[in-house]
């Protein structure tokens, strides 16, 4: 157990930014925290902190290992909890990658509900709009709709993510309504950076991929939505982003005979964390929150 308490000292020091603050958090002497961190550094053969009289900063190695160490400590805590049948109150630290627009629209409420129900679970929500390997980047869950898969990871489907191409009535009146996906090359297009300017469609004879020439690209879907409503161009967007605008007539769908292939929102979970009680509880909350169509 020496290694475990040394890891706990390392994490407490990283979170608190110093040995004294970590000692107060752990309710032990400052010298004990410093000794445990030094023992860990000696064990792995590298420094985890840059030490100075003013501050303590993680070294490159420390930054690399801190999230993995957090996962190891959480795994042990979860195992001991299961062995002792202490499942009534979950206790864990979950680091979650989530997409920005979907988090603001739906996931933030799910995270809030989960933490109200599980007050001893600490959440670290990091908004990233690109594919993430949760194993190498130190996440307990990586939520997204990209069709990427990674080794040592379990993909848990959460919900469907319907998408469509749309534009404002004013734009279509001025520039015309595209009849075929290839017409988009002559239109002003608004592109979501993570998926790129190649837009996929399902045609009567199979998949059609069109390379558009965007006048605006962004990794934030709400920026593209507002631009489309303002009449700046045609956008390919997730339905949940434009549902209100479609209902109010501020936007209208185009190319409905050529639907966009559907994506799935999923949670990628490292295999070693999939059975953790807190992870399973969060997955359950997310699935319930996303049970209503996006």
UniProtKB/TrEMBL annotation:
Give one GO term, molecular function aspect: sequence-specific DNA binding
| GO biological process entries | DNA-templated transcription
Q: What keywords does the record list, in alphabetical order?
A: DNA-binding, Transcription, Transcription regulation
Where would I find the HTH lysR-type domain in this sequence? Answer: 7-59
Q: What does the record give as the function of this protein? A: NodD regulates the expression of the nodABCFE genes which encode other nodulation proteins. NodD is also a negative regulator of its own expression. Binds flavonoids as inducers.
UniProt family annotation: Belongs to the LysR transcriptional regulatory family.
Question: What's this protein's name?
Answer: DNA-binding transcriptional LysR family regulator
Source organism? Bradyrhizobium elkanii
